[in-house]
Amino acid sequence: MLSSRTIEIVKSTVPVLGEHGTAITKRFYTIMFEAHPELLNIFNHVNQSQHRQPTALANVVYAAAANIDKLETLLPVVKQIGHKHRALNVKPEHYPIVGKYLLMAIKDVLGDAATDEIISAWGEAYGVIANVFIQVEDDMYKEAEQQPGGWSDYRPFIVMRKVQETEFITSFYLKPHDNAPIAHFAPGQYITVRVKPDGSANTHLRHYSLSLAPGGDLYRITVKREGANDNKAGGIVSCYLHDAVHVGDTLELTPPAGDFTLAQDKSTPVVLISGGVGLTPMVSMLHTLAEQEPARETIYIHAAKNRNHHALRNEVDKLSQEHAHVKVLTCYEERAVDTDCDHEGYIDATWLKSVLSTDHLAEADFYFCGPVPFMKAINTQLQQLNVAPDRIHYEFFGPSGTLE
Questions:
Q1: Is 83 in a helix, a strand, or coil?
Q2: Which pLDDT belongs to residue 231?
Q3: Burial classification of residue 47, based on how many CB atoms lie within 10 Å of its CB (0-12 exposed, 13-18 middle, 19 or more buried)
Q4: Looking at the predicted structure, is the pLDDT value of residue 229 above 80?
Q5: Whole-number Å distance between alpha carbons of 162 and 247
Q6: Residues of the binding site
Q7: Staple 183 to which of 148, 149, 332, 388, CB 3.0 to 4.6 Å?
Q8: Which residues are annotated as active site (predicted)?
Q9: Is there a single domain that holds both residue 317 and residue 283?
């Protein structure tokens, strides 16, 4: 239990540390990796270089510190991060390492302003915060291993099929090497792939949403080739999967994880909205709704640059044709012919209002995923259409951020 004095110090210094948050966490990662280079086998190097991971860590640490006397209010956030930590095999022994170098980084950045009393208080607070994460993640590790078909750490899977969906998007069908059952997953969850490309000093981990409905004997991930063709950073893992992984090869996976999942205890309508490769969790949800929930009206809206960039379209169209309660709409930035899509340009509030009924806007749950600018736009449009916040659900690919 933290003393009232410790709580007072931590909460009073949150604004100061928050102001320097990204600088502190950038410094933290630098000195931690220098001392513990083995941790580079866990962290996403691209998110480090783009400052997404330092920013996400800063937001979490300072939100927890600001609520140090009522951490239970942050439990949903803790669970969301816990899913990612469990999927990456972050273990209890990693937390003292993080705490040590986080305190060093605070001292390095703030200098004399970070007094011994402040550092001591933050050390105590970090210990409490770390224990909350450790306890939540311990339950997740046990559940992942003890469920039917579950396992711990990494399990080898064979690539049974490799299907090129578009020029830059490919699906991989994965079955366990031992042919034993696989763990169930909730529509919207992801698995984590571990690879070590030739010439790489470290292993690389990436989360990929499962793009089939649960209940089968294999997993499918649908991966966009990143980086190599658009002059952006990244693409180490996706390019490796596209170029170097073939049918018969083995990939190592951790069990499914994630809290962006379809609520299946409702009877209200569902609207799924995706942009680009953000369709992967949506297609899993769509399969589930189409095949298992015939009484639940479902509308799926997908946005892509054009028909050539639209993965899994035939599969999705077939679901719509075979299930009367499913409606599919497409939005392309550029159309080749009139029959290509239902809307040309970008998804906007006016068009959404024209294709969604008043009941949809008042009752439906909305799930969306895609590039961050796309999600910001969709979130704004749903707010403009007065969709209640508790019916708006979304997933970030990578560290969590904000859509505000």
A1: helix
A2: 40
A3: middle
A4: no
A5: 6
A6: 85, 190, 276-281, 396-399
A7: 149
A8: 95, 137
A9: yes
pTM of the model: 0.91
Same domain as 249, residue 191: yes
Kindly report, residue by residue over 180-206, the tens digit of the pLDDT: 999 999 999 999 999 998 888 889 999
Sheet architecture: strand order including 250-257: 204-209, 190-195, 250-257, 155-164, 169-176, 219-224
Contact assessment for residue 382 and residue 356, using Cβ atoms and an 8 Å cutoff = no
What are the binding residues for NADP(+)? 276-281
Q: Percent helix, strand and coil across the chain, each rounded to 5?
A: 50, 20, 35
Q: Percent of the chain, pLDDT > 90?
A: 68
Could you read off the pLDDT of 249-267 as tens digits, one per residue?
999 999 999 999 999 989 9
Say whether pLDDT at 389 is over 50: yes
What average pLDDT does the chain have?
A: 90
Of 116, 146, 176, the last residue of a domain is: 146
Q: What is the mean pLDDT of residues 317-329?
A: 96
Q: Residue 153: which residues within 8 A CB-CB, separation 6 or more?
A: 89, 254
Q: DSSP letters along 295-347, please?
A: TS-EEEEEEESSGGG-TTHHHHHHHHHH-TTEEEEEEESS-SSGGG-SEES--
**Residue 43 gets which letter from DSSP?**
S
Catalytic residue positions?
Answer: 95, 137
Annotated binding site for heme b: 85
Statement to judge: residues 251 and 180 lie in one domain = yes
Question: What CATH number is attached to the domain comprising 323?
Answer: 3.40.50.80
- pLDDT value at residue 403: 60
Rounded to 5°, angle at Cα 133 from 131 and 137: 120
Q: Which of 232, 257, 282 is the last residue of a domain?
A: 257
Same domain, 249 and 318: no
b vs e for 49-83, b when ≥16 Cβ sit within 10 Å of the residue's Cβ?
A: ebebbbbbbbbbbbebbebbeebeebeebbebbbb
**187 and 77 within one domain:** no
**Pair 17, 122 in one domain:** yes
Residue 30 lies in a domain: yes
User: Is 277 inside any structural domain?
Assistant: yes
